[in-house]
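I'm stuck. Please check this protein.
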Amino acid sequence: MMMSPPTIAHNQIASNLERCSTRGLRATHRRCWRRNGRAWTWGEGDYRPKPDVGVIDADYDAGQRFVERAYLLAEVVSDTDEMSVPGTARQWIDVKRELYRSHPHCEAVLVVAQDRMEVALDLKTESGWTSQVLRGAEAELSILAFGLKCAVAELYERTPMQPRRMG
């Protein structure tokens, strides 16, 4: 399927999430994990989405393009993600989220809106997945296993929702 390139806001939000996650991973000294976007290949059949941000194993080969293990997967919702999957009433973002949650190594899934301050957070626990939606600038995103802790507002810095202040 031909897709439009991501918006500037989409890319900025993904960059902000990368910055927050990298800071957290460094703070926890979890050297076995590395933040990396668009390097995941696990999927069903021919459908293999590429998340905007992911945490993968730190060790990889110099020429390696894809990984089989991902521990945190994040999507910034694009217009195409809100389109219906042909022949169904499901949106692509719901299919991606379900696929990410079914990956045996995945411990956390983030779905970040690009047009409002809202983050859906899924965390794997011993008893299954828990889900919550964080709304507004003051909400706090916290995933202790990855050392990730930031205000939702940080994900939207330098976007139309949280523009840079001049002066």
Notes: DSSP finds three helices and eight strands in the chain.
